[in-house]
Amino acid sequence: MFSKFFSENVKERRNVERNALDILTFLSVELGERTLRKYENLQRTREFINNYFVRFGHQPYEDIYVVNKKEVANIIVEIPGFENPDEIVVLGAHYDTIEGTPGADDNGSAIAGLLEIYRLLSHFKFKKTIRFVAFTLEEPPFFDTELMGSMHYATLCKKRKDNIVLMVCLEMIGFGWKKIEQEFPPHEIRMKAPKTGNFLTVVSLPSSCQYTYLWKKIYNSHAKNKIFDIVGPASIPGIALSDHASFVKNGYPGIMLCDTGFYRNKNYHTEDDTINTINFVFLAQNIMYSFFTLKEILNMGLLNFNHFEEEK
Question: How much is the pLDDT for 8?
Answer without folding.
Answer: 52
